[in-house]
Amino acid sequence: MTFIEKLRARWQQADSLVCVGLDPDPARFPDAFVDDEDALFSFCRDIVDATAAYACAFKPQIAYFAAHNGGEAALQRLIAHINGAHPDVPVILDAKRGDIGSTAEQYAVEAFDRFGADAVTLNPYMGRDSADPFLQRNERGCVFLCHTSNPGARDFQELDVGGQPLYQRIARTIANEWNADGNCALVVGATFPQELKVIRGIVGDMPLLIPGIGAQGGDVEAVVRNGRTADGSGLMINSSRGILYASRGAGYAEAAADAARELRDTINRYRM
């Protein structure tokens, strides 16, 4: 089963568009993890197990693991746990890779073979040859930055390129030229709902990964109404901090599950 097939099946199976972001910050962990040398893995494993029923995908952010000694090994174990315990839930490695072809080949091995992710986030700035090593793994997903959620997104992404904003050129190029095997998706920030609507019009039913809900101020209703496909799916709406750190008490996992379920239910009110 390809990443896209797995994602579409999960949308239906879980009736959810929630992507649970795994951005573990030990400074925000519950007190139970203060002396836990394996805290990165243990905390994320507990969050995964508590929220899997409400997730269409998990998205571990590689920097939050790589910043710590042993963190990448913890990430490997975490993805292996997801693949073993929750095999129906796709894993998107948030690494935003983008480099010359020979280096990109190694990053593809890292994401798909070393870590075992179903998909990886990518930066298209260096062009097609930097993306080819990922695109050629056509059973895996390539999730390209298009219009991001951060305030600085407009610095470059909305510059005029031949009579159209750069983000629209990216969307058209990926949809029309790079997606021959149907394994592409785009990152579009929740903080730019009108741009999201434009991108949906350009790319048809291509999946969109949506960061920016919650702490960054994105509005769920605007995202769903502007980004959904005709069948009410097409979106992976990411929440990280709002789920991971719903509580620092003993019931942190249950609080995370409640937060994920509440977000799923809020999203579903606007899907059809």
CATH class, please? Alpha Beta
Order of helices and strands: HEHEHHEHEHEHEEHEHEHEHH
Our Rg estimate from Cα atoms comes to 18 Å
Q: List segments where confidence is low: pLDDT < 50 over at least 5 consecutive residues.
A: none
Instruction: Give a quick account of the main beta sheet: strands, pairing sense, barrel closure.
Output: 8 strands, parallel
Largest sheet: spatial strand order: 2-1-10-9-8-5-4-3
Please report which band the strand proportion falls in: under 5%, 5-15%, 15-25%, 25-35%, 35-45% or over 45%. 15-25%
CATH homologous superfamily descriptor: Aldolase class I
Tally the helices. 12
Structure described in brief:
With about 270 residues, this protein is of the alpha/beta class.
Protein traits:
two-stranded antiparallel sheet, 16% strand, TIM Barrel, single chain, alpha/beta, 272 residues, 46% helix, globular, eight-stranded parallel β-sheet
Task: Please write out the topology.
Elements: H1 3-14, E1 18-22, H2 39-51, E2 57-60, H3 62-66, H4 71-85, E3 92-97, H5 101-114, E4 119-122, H6 128-135, E5 141-147, H7 154-157, E6 160-161, E7 164-165, H8 166-178, E8 184-188, H9 193-203, E9 208-210, H10 220-227, E10 235-239, H11 241-244, H12 252-268
Parallel strand pairs: 1-2, 1-10, 3-4, 4-5, 5-8, 8-9, 9-10
Antiparallel strand pairs: 6-7
Describe the structure.
With 272 residues, the chain is of the alpha/beta class. The protein has a single domain (3-268), classed as Aldolase class I (TIM Barrel, Alpha-Beta Barrel), CATH 3.20.20.70. Helix content is 46%, strand content 16%. It has helices spanning 3-14, 39-51, 62-66, 71-85, 101-114, 128-135, 154-157, 166-178, 193-203, 220-227, 241-244, 252-268; strands spanning 18-22, 57-60, 92-97, 119-122, 141-147, 160-161, 164-165, 184-188, 208-210, 235-239. The longest helix has 17 residues, at 252-268. The mean pLDDT is 97.
